[in-house]
Amino acid sequence: MRFKKICALMICTAAVAAVFSCKKDEETTYKSFEGTLEILGSRSIIEAGETLTFTPKGLTLPEDTECYYKWTVTGDVADTSRFDDGHYVYTFPSDTCMTYTVTCSVSASGYYSSSTYAYVTTIKTGPDGSIPEIYRTFTLGSVQDSDGIKYGYVKIGEDYWTMMNLGTSGSGLGYRGYDVTSELFGRFYNYEEAMEICPEGWHLPSEKEWMDAAQTVAEETLELYGTWPGVSGAMMVDASFNSRTLWEYWPDVKITNATGLCAMPLGYANLEAESFTAFYDFAAFWTADKFNENQAYVRYIFVDKPDMYCFPADTKSFGASVRCVKDR
Length: 328
Prior knowledge:
Strand content: 25-35%
Oligomer: single chain
Radius of gyration: 29 Å
Helix content: 10-25%
Structural class: alpha+beta
Distance between the termini: 115 Å
Largest sheet: 5 strands, mixed
Order of helices and strands: HEEEEEEEEHEEEHHEHEEEEEEEEE
Number of strands: 21
Number of helices: 5
Shape: elongated
């Protein structure tokens, strides 16, 4: 009897081992796709309402095996397996400005699924767009550039200043290389471009004109090319980009936009590398004043500092924002 029990136990143990062995064999039959999945056709920044065609690329797919393609755009799900290349055409909402996550998954029988994603931010100009607070402050009027873009202006002291960064095409770079951002953020110009780009009857402000504007809110006498205490908050606009606050709160900085300049923290561009740095950190504006043969002065407004600073920058590679002052 004891022998029978031992045999039965051995048979049971062998059966269990066989089951696990089969499961292990099944698991090892799954393969991985060769290559790395990519999404072609995506762009980081587009205009709200625009249509994009996304195409999965980068994988070597098995022959004679049906592949399945699944796309998700922040909640919207689509199966595009009926297309040989699995492409997906999507029209982004025209009434919503936000950052969407675009996800693509590819699967096939006997293979591990592969997925990847991309981000697409939609933007829009105007009082119901990405930065509505800017357009709601147009009170005196506007000036139009050669592209037909209208810039509101404000009187600061004795001068009229544009309330938006210049975005005229033909030179400079749009943010992250996208022209669609030009009207909303303005473009990043080198010094030579900045000196020529203002509309007729307007010009790039000198350091003296910047100082006169800052002096209207300063509590002490300012000096050319110096650090101007306590004036930054009066230059900053309390606004949001796609519902995210542009100027992060810092206890030392009180944002009043008392000058009406409506400065936004868009950072700067390295025009040679076509790279963009410090969005949300500071605003950088060209002045018309040269420091030496290869450098000119730039005025800075930092998110965490109440003072306005002045530093020289390379006239060819440094890309800064441009404001214009009306000729007297």
